[in-house]
Amino acid sequence: MDHFLYKDGVLHAEDVPVSEIAASVGSPFYVYSTATLERHFRLFDEALDGIDHLVCYAMKAASNQAILKTLANAGAGMDVVSKGEYLRAKAAGVPGDKIVFSGVGKTADEIRVALQGGIRQFNVESEPEMLVLNAQAVMLGMTVPITIRVNPDVDAKTHAKIATGKSENKFGIPIARARDVYAMAAALPGLEVIGIDVHIGSQLTDLAPFELAYQKVAELTETLRADGHDIRRLDLGGGLGIPYAYSNVAPPLPSDYGDLIKRTVGHLGCEIEIEPGRLIAGNAGIMVSGVIYVKSGEGRDFLIVDGAMNDLIRPAMYEAHHDIIPVIEPAVGVDQQPYDIVGPICESGDTFAKQRMMPPLESGDLIAFRSAGAYGAVMASEYNSRLLIPEVLVNGDQFAVIRPRPTFEDMINRDTIPAWL
Predict the structure, then answer these.
(1) I need a surface site. Which of 64, 134, 196, 290 has the fewest CB within 10 A?
(2) Which residues are catalytic?
(3) What is the pTM of this model?
C-alpha cells in the first residue's frame, strides 16, 4: 500500500495534489510520502515483535536527509556502505550505536571516521579488510564489534546485477571457510566477534532462498558457538521485493518474512538485525514528468517526456518495470493506446517503456512513475548536462522541497579551468 491515490480526478501524494507540486517546482521531480515511509518501517518492526531486534534502513535506497530523519524518528537504525552515507546518517541525528557499516571496499579512512564517530558494528567482508580494521582499532586504542559476512552460495532467483549470495559474487567469505576466518578474527586484539552477517540479494519475491540461507546461518551459529565464539547477533540483510507492476503477484509480506526469521533462527537467542531499503522507500516515492511531445513514428507513437534515464536509470540499467499513470485520472472507459515512453537523452537506452498502454496524452500533460522512491534519485546523474531534479516530501496536506533543483550556473561552476587554458 502507498499514499498516492486519485482524489477528485487528480493524483494526490497523501492530501496534496501532485499537479500543485508540479506548478510549484516544475517537472520532472521526485515526491515522497511520509505516511508510506513510516508505515513500511512499522511493518518490519512489528514483524519482529517478540524477539530482540533492530531494523536498520539500507540508506543506499534513498538517502535524502529528510527521509533519514523521518525514519530515524520512527526508530530505525541505518545500514551504510560508505563514508558519505555514514556522515549523512550522523547529520540526520542517527546515533553511532544504531549505524551498521557494510560494504566490500571500506577504506582505512572510512573505518577511522566511523570508529571515531561511533558505530554499532562493522560487517566485515574479507580477511584483508579485517586486518585493516584491526590496525585502525588498535591505533585508536579501541575494540570494535564485528560480524563477518558469509556467502551461503544461495541463488536468490533475482536479477543477475542485484544477486549477492552466490559463490561467484564479490560479497562475503565462502561459508565453507567461516570457521577459519572466525578463528583469525578472534585472535586479533582490536576486534570483538559478536555475530554473523548474510545478505543474498535484492528484489526477492520468494521466501524460499531466505529460508535456505537462514538455515545455513543457524547451523553456522551452532558450529561457531561450539568453537568458543560468542555469537549473539545475526544480521540477516535485506532484499525483500516490492510490486513494481501492480498487476503482478505481490511479493511476500513483511509479516511472513518475520515469521520465517522466527522459525529459522528465533531459537538461537540472538539479537536480529535486518536491513530493508527498497521495500521501505520504493513505493513511498514517485517520479513526475511532463510530456514534451507526442511523436508519430513508423507503426508506433512516442511520448517524449522531460524525465530521462539520468533521472531514473533503473529501466535502462536493469530492464526494470515501473507502472506509469497520468496525473489527471482518465475518464471511465476511455480508449487506451500503446506508446513508447522515452526521454530526451541522445541514447536509445533512454526508454522507460515500450508499447505501454496509456490513455491519449498531449504536450503539457503530467505522468507519474510509480515505485520510484528506491534507487531513483540516489542513482541520478547530470548526463547530457541535465540538472539533477528536485525532491519533495509530503506530510498530510503539507509539502516541502527537500532537495532543490540546482541552477546551470551551479553545475558549470563546479568545474575548474586550469591556468594554462
Answers:
(1) 290
(2) 346
(3) 0.93
